[in-house]
């Protein structure tokens, strides 16, 4: 049990059907997530990074079973929950919780903060009545809110406070995994740091596994242990944080890192890699390597051959034809 | 920020009751006007037996008297006091309007939530609703009443049936938009399910549009009841209703216009009062419109 990953995803696929024509037949599918695999151990943070529309939020929602996966496998603490009905999924929800992106719309405006945080406790029959109040109050204090705040409505809180509420709610059932979908992107930078540090402290305390979804590389660098880079529904590179930032192996990762501003006037900018064109539509992804239409180093073979995600160095996975396993890497420039 | 909310909440509580009412009226003059008018009409209807004489007492000697000190609103062709009949008629109208709004609101709310939430049932129920909406409500009512014994209950049922789909549509569309809200996903992820999810997270957010819709249905119900009574298909003639008072007076319209003008004015005022409240509530409960005021 202990060496079992808290959350494992194998070849996860989520396609959204497109209906068209007179009879509303299925005419295609948006391939939001197309074969994603990863595993997160206890106490570990896996960062999922990528630009808007790459499918990273869909991964989060599918893992939480808020969306029904098309195929693949989702294992929570070793238990396969992939195709469980909502009723059968329910007991597993205790082990996987979530913190949402938008602290404004992810909390019901008609409920008090105390009710929101205490709701999972009563749902899973963990505590009721006075005991529930007591535990909710303890959670409030743990995330840095005063217990008097329990009787307030959510619109009386600031963005950072609301996100603390969301975290308290997620913690209430003592989960193993927390899926955090852009939990700080709606917050001011100073508040971002506070919330991130709170998440890190909680992880140390409860050995939580985080699936941390963000487009912000600075945030990723702060909180993640390993980072997976997504492009058009696929993971193109997966590596330790240090390895990814120091030696990115996929051209897309390289471009992503080059685009991030460096808050240090002394350090020189990396060579700028500016990608041409737009992300192709996930309803009609390109043949071969999905990145070849924008890749500055694309080979003719990239048009036909879809590179698998392979381990090229210990713990460093990349999906690029120029980075074959064992063989000499074809230089990037 | 927390400190600021503390202050304003405290200030709000300290305001004297009268001042708070004054503020409420100044902010929502439409609702206030409608509410006052409706309150007057409702109290007249409730107090009718004590304020007036027997509305059914005939006195041929007093037939078709114009409004005077003794007969405030005049008398009809049987010498019955129109003031008494109008006030008693208000009871029928208000009972029909409120019951129709309440029953169609409850049924519509239940069906609307089911349709919006359980998508498999949605197609079937909504097609049935479309079918019901295609039936003209007055014709349906006349058909139902000819099939059964005329009475208040039949009138109410006959009006409720075609009004239900209107509520279902409103509630369903609100539920559909609430379903997409992240707080619903958040509640599901937190283990909330089934009836509790609907009752605690979906239902409270459908109430505002439902209340607005209910006021319009209340007004429409009163108008349809009057039309049915006018056509002789409504409440039995021994119960005075604005519709049948007007119907009985219409033969003498040219010599005794008060027999139809007075119940007509009352009907118009009641519908106006309810619609004013509906309009005011719509503006008040819709944040986009409320901000503009």
TrEMBL record, chain A:
One of its GO terms (molecular function) is ATP hydrolysis activity. InterPro entries: AAA+_ATPase, ABC_transp_ATP-bind, ABC_transporter-like_ATP-bd, ABC_transporter-like_CS, Oligopep_ABC_C, P-loop_NTPase. This is ATP-binding cassette domain-containing protein. NCBIfam families: oligo_HPY. It comes from Vineibacter terrae. Belongs to the ABC transporter superfamily. It is found in: Cell inner membrane. GO terms for cellular component: plasma membrane. Residues 7-257 form the ABC transporter domain. One of its GO terms (biological process) is transmembrane transport. SMART domains: AAA. It is a peripheral membrane protein. Keywords: ATP-binding, Nucleotide-binding, Transport. Gene3D superfamilies: P-loop containing nucleotide triphosphate hydrolases (3.40.50.300). Its main location: membrane. Pfam families: ABC_tran, oligo_HPY.
TrEMBL record, chain B:
The keyword Transmembrane helix applies. The keyword GTP-binding does not apply. GO terms for cellular component: plasma membrane. Keywords: Cell membrane, Membrane, Transmembrane, Transmembrane helix, Transport. SUPFAM superfamilies: MetI-like. PROSITE patterns: ABC_TM1. It is found in: Cell membrane. Coiled coil: none annotated. It is a multi-pass membrane protein. It comes from the Bacteria. Pfam families: BPD_transp_1, OppC_N. The chain crosses the membrane at residues 30-51, 94-118, 138-161, 210-235, 255-277. Residues 94-278 form the ABC transmembrane type-1 domain. CDD domains: TM_PBP2. InterPro entries: BP-dependent_transpt_permease (IPR050366), MetI-like (IPR000515), MetI-like_sf (IPR035906), OppC_N (IPR025966). GO terms for biological process: transmembrane transport. Belongs to the binding-protein-dependent transport system permease family. This is ABC transporter permease. It comes from Vineibacter terrae.
């Amino acid at each position: 049990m202990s060496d079992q990953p808290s959350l494992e995803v194998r070849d996860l696929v989520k396609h959204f059907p497109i209906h068209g024509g007179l009879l509303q037949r299925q005419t295609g599918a948006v391939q939001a997530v197309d074969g994603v695999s990863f595993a997160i151990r206890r106490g570990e943070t896996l960062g999922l990074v990528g630009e808007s529309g790459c499918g990273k939020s869909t991964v989060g929602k599918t893992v939480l079973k808020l969306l029904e996966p098309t195929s693949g496998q989702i294992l929570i603490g070793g238990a396969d929950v992939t195709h469980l009905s909502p009723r059968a999924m329910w007991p597993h929800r205790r082990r996987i919780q979530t913190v949402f992106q938008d602290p404004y719309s992810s909390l019901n405006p008609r409920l008090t903060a105390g009710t929101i945080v205490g709701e999972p406790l009563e749902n899973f029959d963990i505590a009721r009545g006075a005991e529930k109040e007591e535990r909710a109050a303890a959670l409030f204090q743990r995330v840095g809110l005063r217990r008097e705040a329990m009787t307030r409505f959510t619109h009386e809180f600031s963005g950072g406070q609301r996100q603390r509420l969301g975290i308290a709610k997620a913690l209430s059932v003592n989960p193993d995994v927390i899926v955090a979908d852009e939990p700080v992107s709606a917050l001011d930078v100073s508040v971002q740091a506070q919330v991130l540090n709170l998440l890190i402290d909680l992880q140390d305390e409860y050995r939580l596994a985080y699936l941390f979804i963000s487009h912000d590389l600075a945030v990723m660098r702060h909180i993640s242990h390993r980072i997976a880079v997504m492009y058009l529904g696929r993971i193109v590179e997966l590596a330790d944080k240090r390895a990814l930032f120091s030696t990115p192996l996929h051209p897309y990762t390289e471009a992503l890192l080059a685009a991030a501003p460096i808050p240090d006037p002394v350090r020189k900018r990396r060579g700028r890699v500016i990608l041409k064109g737009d992300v192709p539509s996930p309803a009609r992804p390109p043949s071969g390597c999905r990145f070849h239409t924008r890749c500055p180093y694309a080979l003719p073979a990239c048009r036909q051959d879809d590179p698998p995600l392979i381990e090229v160095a210990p713990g460093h996975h990349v999906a690029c034809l120029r980075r074959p396993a064992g063989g000499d890497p074809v230089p990037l420039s | 920020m927390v400190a600021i909310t503390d202050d304003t909440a405290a200030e709000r509580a300290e305001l004297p009751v009268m001042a708070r009412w004054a503020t409420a009226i100044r902010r929502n003059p439409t609702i206030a006007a409608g509410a006052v008018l409706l309150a007057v009409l409702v109290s007249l209807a409730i107090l009718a037996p004590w304020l007036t004489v027997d509305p059914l007492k005939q006195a041929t000697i007093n037939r078709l008297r114009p409004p005077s000190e003794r007969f405030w609103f005049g008398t009809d062709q049987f010498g019955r006091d129109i003031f008494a009949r109008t006030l008693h008629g208000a009871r029928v109208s208000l009972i029909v309007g409120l019951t129709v709004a309440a029953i169609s609101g409850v049924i519509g709310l239940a069906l609307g939530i089911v349709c919006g939430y359980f998508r498999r049932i949605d197609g079937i129920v909504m097609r049935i609703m479309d079918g019901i909406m295609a039936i003209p409500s007055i014709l349906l009512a006349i058909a139902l009443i000819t099939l059964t014994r005329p009475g208040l209950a039949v009138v109410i049922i006959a009006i409720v049936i075609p009004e239900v789909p209107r509520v279902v549509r409103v509630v369903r569309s609100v539920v559909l938009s609430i379903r997409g809200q992240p707080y619903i996903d958040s509640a599901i992820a937190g283990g909330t399910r089934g009836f509790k999810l609907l009752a605690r997270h979906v239902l409270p957010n459908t109430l505002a549009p439902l209340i607005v819709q209910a006021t319009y249905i209340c007004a429409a119900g009163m108008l349809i009841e009057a039309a049915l009574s006018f056509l002789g298909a409504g409440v039995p003639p021994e119960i005075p209703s604005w519709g049948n008072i007007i119907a009985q007076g219409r033969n003498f319209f040219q010599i005794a216009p008060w027999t139809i003008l007075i119940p007509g004015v009352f009907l118009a005022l009641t519908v106006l009062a309810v619609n004013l409240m509906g309009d005011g509530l719509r503006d008040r409960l819709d944040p986009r419109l409320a901000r503009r005021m």
